[in-house]
Amino acid sequence: MLEVRDLHVYYGEIHALKGVSFSVAEGEIVTLLGNNGAGKTTTLRALSGLLAPRTGDVRLDQTSLLSIAPHDIVLKGITHVPEGRRIFNRLSVTENLEMGAYTRSDRGIGQDMEQVFAIFPRLKERRVQVAGTLSGGEQQMLAIGRALMAKPRLLLLDEPSMGLAPVLVEQIFETVLTINKQGVTILLVEQNAAMALSIAGRGYVLETGRIALEGGAAELADNPEVRRAYLGEA
C-alpha cells in the first residue's frame, strides 16, 4: 500500500531524514518508535506532503506522491492527525468534524459524522461545544474524528497519547484498534513504546534520522536495545 524509499529530508542545512525506507501493507498497524528528534514527525509530514523531500520517493499503490499537493494526498486516502492535535479552537465540535470533510461533496457526510460519534460518544455529548474548551483527551478524540471524516484508507497518527492521563491513553489505543478493524490502515508514531507495540503488527525504530531496527512488534518488544531505550528497563 505505502512504500517509502530512501527518503532524505532537510530543514535548511540540517539533514533530518537520512535515507529512511519502510513499508505499510493494507490493513496493518505499523508503529514508528524513537526518541525526540529522531525524525518521526518529520517522516509523517513528508508523507502527507507538508515537507518536500530532497531525494527519495513516497508511493501509494505504486503511485508517487512527491508532486502532489497535501489536499490532493487527502483525496487519495491519506489523512494526518498531527502532534498537538491542531484542532480549530474557536469552532464547535461539529464544525471541526465538518472541516475534516472539506474535500468531500457526497451525501454521506452526515452518516459518517454519526459513525464518528459512535466511536467517540463523548463528542456527541459535546457536539455544540467550542472545541478549545474541551479536555485534552476530548481534543484528541476530535482530532482523530476530524481525520476520519475524510474517509481515509491510511491514517497517520502522531503521538496520540501525548499529555493524556493513563486511563485516557488506554481508551485512545483501544479506539485505534477499533478504527483499524473497520478497515483503516494505520501508521502510528508514538513515544509510549509499550502501548504502541501492544497494538501494532510491525514496527520500525528511528534513530537520528535513520531506521535502526525493524521487525514484528513482539520481536521488537523482546529486543534488549528496545527494552532498555524505550521500555524503561535496565
In words, what does this structure look like?
The chain has 234 residues and is an alpha/beta fold. The chain has one domain: P-loop containing nucleotide triphosphate hydrolases (Rossmann fold, 3-Layer(aba) Sandwich). 37% of the residues lie in helices and 26% in strands. It has helices at residues 40-47, 70-75, 93-100, 109-119, 121-125, 136-148, 166-181, 193-199, 217-222, 224-230, and strands at residues 2-11, 14-24, 29-33, 55-60, 63-64, 78-81, 154-158, 185-189, 202-207, 210-216. The strands form two sheets. It has a six-stranded mixed beta sheet, sandwiched between helices. The chain has a four-stranded antiparallel beta sheet with strand order 2-1-4-5, with helices on one face. α3 packs parallel to α6 (136-148). The model has no long low-confidence stretch (mean pLDDT 91).
CATH architecture: 3-Layer(aba) Sandwich
Tally of distinct domains:
1
User: What is the overall pLDDT average?
Assistant: 91
Major β-sheet annotation: 6 strands, mixed
Q: Separation of termini?
A: 37 Å
Which shape, going by the Cα principal axes? Answer: globular
Poorly predicted runs of 5 or more residues: none
Report helical residue fraction. 25-40%
What is the strand tally?
A: 10
Order of helices and strands: EEEHEEHEHHHHEHEHEEHH
Query: What is the subunit organization of this protein?
Result: single chain
Q: Provide the β-strand percentage band.
A: 25-35%
Main sheet strand line-up: 6-7-8-3-9-10
| CATH-defined topology | Rossmann fold
